[in-house]
Amino acid sequence: MLADDLRGIWYIALKDLRAYYFKPPNISWGILFPFAFVLAFAIRNPGELRQLVPGLLALTTLFGTSSMEAIVIVFERRIGALERLLLAPVRLPALLAGKLLGGMAFGLTVTAFVLCVALAAFGTSNIHWPLLVAGLLLSAAAFSALGAFVSVAVREVFEAQTLANFIRFPMMFLGGIFVPLSSMPPALQIVARALPLTYAVEVLQAAFNGRASPVTALDLGVLAIFTLVMFSLATRTLSRWMD
Description:
243 residues; mainly alpha
């Protein structure tokens, strides 16, 4: 059964990448949208551009993983494709894991492109590579799980897009990308600490500063726990839908 689940995860992710993700509009949305926001901020507040790179990577990962992830499941549920997938010898958590893997793969691909551009512009000195890789992987997993939960929590595609943006846009401005958490009012700092983007930004900032600490280990742990919680909630919600 485990072998069937692993095979199912792989082929479901592969199918989603071919059918939904690697399309020109998705690629341009995943890359250009975060670039546009960060560029607008850099023009408004010119300074050390390298300091914006961790936030740009976190933002690209967020939008790359969650944009289609929040739509695919509800779309397939509407047309009956999800029920047909369950006819295969694969359990529901494995099916959902395949969806998450597809979102992660696409998000990490567009993030890798942005990272290559940033490294070409600013160099590779002082980067803590293991922390950078761990931060990107766990961030992609957390955001993809969030997108999956959004997708199973609604009935229609437009509702999924609305709910995803309702969650992502506040995160974008409260996650420490444009304004440091220490500069925010205490109430907003508490809200920011409930958002996974905050921890993704902190880990990537530490990676680009070349230092790992107990705080970054805590950030990685929070991202892992957030992934498990969102995946569990999405699986339970989807199970109720399928019943």
